[in-house]
Design a protein that fits this description.
This protein has 127 residues and is an all-alpha fold. It has a single domain, classed as Serine Threonine Protein Phosphatase 5, Tetratricopeptide repeat (Alpha Horseshoe), CATH 1.25.40. It is built from seven helices and no strands. Helix 1 packs antiparallel against helix 2, helix 4 packs antiparallel against helix 5 and helix 5 packs antiparallel against helix 6. The N and C termini lie far apart (33 Å).
């Protein structure tokens, strides 16, 4: 964040890492959000992580993109929504979101591979 304070993806990844570590993730994301342009993608995901919007609005924002980026944004949306569900303990919902990310077929995005990883990790735990 120090190197690229306007990078929304860095803010989201830091938020997820801090949440997994049991740290004050929401406060950090709120502070970082002030430096982000939340009017453009992935602003809808940041708004959701801050509790300012619903899942359906994130998916609508992703689906409203130009056709060349729609599947990519859907992949990202499903992955980050899955991670939020996982953090809340909603394993079934997280699995559905991760599968949604994979179903986009956007193999050149890290979120696609992270969704695969999370599904494998959950399967290994017997969830």
């Amino acid at each position: 964040m120090a190197l690229q304070p306007e990078n929304a993806y860095a803010a989201l990844l830091l938020h997820m890492a801090m949440a997994r570590a049991g740290e004050a993730a929401d406060a950090e994301l709120a502070a970082n959000a002030g430096r982000l342009d939340l009017r453009k993608w992935p602003g809808a995901i940041v708004h959701f992580a801050l509790g300012r919007t619903r899942e359906s609005e994130v998916l609508e924002a992703a689906q409203g993109a130009r056709s060349t980026t729609r599947r990519e944004q859907e992949c990202e949306a499903f992955y980050y929504l899955g991670m939020e569900r996982l953090e809340r303990g909603d394993i079934t919902g997280a699995v559905a979101m991760f599968r949604g990310a994979i179903d986009t077929g956007v193999r050149h995005f890290v979120e696609y591979h992270q969704a695969e990883f999370e599904l494998e990790r959950l399967n290994a735990r017997g969830k």
